[in-house]
Amino acid sequence: MIEFFKLLNAKCEDHARLISLSMDESLSFSQRSAVKLHLLYCRACRKFRRDAKLMREALRLGRDKTSDFPKSSTSSLSPNAAESIAASIEARMSNDQ
Fold first, then answer.
1. Distance between CA 96 and CA 23 in Å, rounded?
2. Is 34 within a domain?
3. What is the C-alpha to C-alpha distance for residues 70 and 84, in angstroms, rounded to an integer?
4. pTM for this entry
5. Would you say residue 23 lies in a domain?
6. Is 39 domain-assigned?
7. Using an 8 Å Cβ cutoff, are 23 and 52 in contact?
8. Which of 10, 19, 33, 86 is most buried, judging by how many CB atoms fall within 10 Å of its CB?
């Protein structure tokens, strides 16, 4: 309960952090309640949440479509380097889910 009252007086930066965190993991009841209450009166944080959701969806759609991108025939990377970079990106993206 103390956490809830502290969060009521928190800055938008703190709520933005919690909004971002809520997209990856569950928040405590106090955190969820404080964020919901803050979103009722803070237009900037509502916009931040909407934009973060849109960006997350765009990245997910882009990741799903990466196999559709045409391969460049004028790449300055060696095939091994290009494959290594692609594998690294895919590994990081799968860890983010």
1. 11
2. yes
3. 18
4. 0.59
5. yes
6. yes
7. yes
8. 19
Contact 11, 41 (CB under 8 A): no
Q: How far apart are CA 28 and CA 43, in angstroms?
A: 23
Strand segments (E) across the chain: none
Write out the two tokens for 42.
């803070």
Overall number of domains in the chain = 1
Is residue 72 in some structural domain? no
Tell which residue, 53, 57, 43, has the closest CA to residue 12: 43
Neighbour tally for 35: CB within 10 Å = 23
How many Å apart are CA 81 and CA 31, to the nearest integer?
Answer: 44
Rounded Cα–Cα distance for residues 3 and 19 (Å)? 16
CB 42 within 8 A of CB 12: yes
Q: Are 27 and 21 in contact (CB under 8 A)?
A: yes
First-to-last alpha carbon distance for the chain, in angstroms, is 31
pLDDT, tens only, 15-58: 999 999 999 999 999 999 999 999 999 999 999 999 999 999 88
